[in-house]
Specification:
Chain A is of the alpha/beta class and about 240 residues long. In chain A, about 40% of the residues lie in helices and about 25% in strands. A 6-stranded mixed β-sheet of chain A has the order 6-7-8-3-9-10, with helices on both faces. A 4-stranded antiparallel β-sheet of chain A has the order 2-1-4-5, with helices on one face. With about 425 residues, chain B is mainly alpha-helical. Chain B contains 18 helices and 6 strands. The chains are: A alpha/beta (about 240), B mainly alpha (about 425).
Chain lengths: ~240, ~425
Amino acid sequence: MALLEVTEINAHYGRIQALRNLSLKVDKGEIVALIGSNGAGKTTTLRTISGLMHPGQGTIKFDGHDITRTGPEKIVDLGICQSPEGRRLFARMTVMDNLMMGAYTRRDPAQIKVDVEHVFELFPRLKERRNQIAGTLSGGEQQMCAMGRALMAKPKLLMLDEPSLGLSPILCDTIFSIVGEINSAGTPVLLVEQNARRALEVAHRGYVIETGVIVQTGTGKELLESEEVQKAYLGM
Amino acid sequence: MSVPATAQKRGPMWNRLRLRERIRDRDTAIFGILFITAVVWPMATIYATDSTFLIAQAGHAGTYVLLAIGLNVVVGFAGLLDLGYAAFFAIGAYTYALFASNQLASSPLHHEFHMPFWLMLFVGMVVAAVCGAILGFPTLRLRGDYLAIVTLGFGEIVPQLFYNFDQWTGGINAIGNIDQPSLPYWITGPWAEAGITTIKLVPNFSFAYDPVAFYVLIVILVILAVILVRNLHSSRLGRAWMAIREDEVAAAAMGINTVTTKLLAFAIGASFSGFAGAYYGASFGIVSPDSFLFTVSITVLVMIVLGGMGNITGVIVGALAIYFVLNNLLPALPAQVESLADSVGLGSLNVQNGDWPGLAGETQRIAFLLYGLILVVMMLLRPQGLVPSRVREQELKHDAVLEEETAVEQAHA
């Protein structure tokens, strides 16, 4: 059974339908990329999974639980954590405090300390800047902080919303290689990206979403080689 | 077996207190100064002025400090703009006044209550907290400006209720003759069997409008409040408040139950003003709806913004500063200006002439203009507040640092 199973969900903003019968799944150990252009419904999908909004129809199952109508705080408790679009750090708190907020639902201080060290290993920059106010970090550092914060929840599924947004190509490389590292340490990742090439290179499987509908799916390699994807998203 | 490092190296008591380090910490140093001033204040002012007036005033200022500390929880920590804070103050004061005076004898209840102050202090706190939760429950899904408007409405409604339910509250006539707190003077215990039923520890002591007694009480209450809020600030709940203030969606995504957390901020903030209200009722002996109007809410808000929102030390300093400006500086100004004009040879300005009411009269006329000017100037000079929280300070410095960094980067490129 898949870890996350989204079946035929519909979502609306007022009268505008953002998702139509969207289904996707994430298995244990996978990196799954969800690619699509602006306004295709990528972020809405993540918001719906994390409980910040609820689907009109369809079901979402995670780890054996039905989380279709569950509130966001319970979903975090169950083990889904996301680094939201635009990072949304707590700008006036320190890097360390931001990381600790990620561990908000956890009650095992000793293990939290170990995990902070682990995050610092992944992102050495954060260790240097641990006492700096998060709002004063550079874009790349903020992205690292947002990912570190999500990791601090010790998620069973990590969802990243556009981690490469606004970063230089070199920083993108760093971020995607860290995504690979996080995954090889055992955490499945649902990756939402506009940067289709990078996302598909690192992902095991991918979905292509257009105006709220999944139009194509396959392994990362298949999608990279698919003509439609090349035309629409890779600029070839 | 390893022995903890601290246990191995225990220096003398003096070293362990780490006094030097602590004094270097700005907030702790200010706390120290405030505490010492609070202790010396009654003796010094009695010695200097031979009256207890300044002590009474300090006691009254203490109510505002308490209010500011409470509002800071709501506005400074959780970032919920509450413009009706005086309502909770009123609720606290009326809770004590109704149950500690003969007011309810003339109400449809026909029985008067005289509950002890020490109990009502906490009842007032709980009632205010419950009212905070009741107000918060339907309104806290509103954000920012919308919440501010709703709280503003609540702040207007509550004094009106106390006006118009005059059967119960006496309305415009206020509630007077409120009981004074007293300290119990006996303690019974197992020793009572030995033929002594009670042991007198201290002679019976009623506060009886004694400003010194009330002053001691408010100092203790403020210290308790500071300890409480400091701990709250560094607790899990405190961090959740800050996260909500920074970004509510991200906070929800971190697993914080935003509704409960905001509700707690409202209730806990309100409970402090309930506390302050009970004290206020007792120390003045009279409670009237006029004392809890919109201006009180705004004054307290000004105190915390000007003092340094989110920082407890700043809030206390701000409360004292604004209290001083409002109650000492502005009332004394006309006479001061008059004598100043006399001494620099502009005595003619003091003479009333036609529309000109004399310099003193004119100063009195524009007192609130001056108050506004003082606020504007203070905010221009110190936008971060008198004693800002460290985060605020760093943030305001950051712009300058950022410019420097980009300059350096450009130089490297």
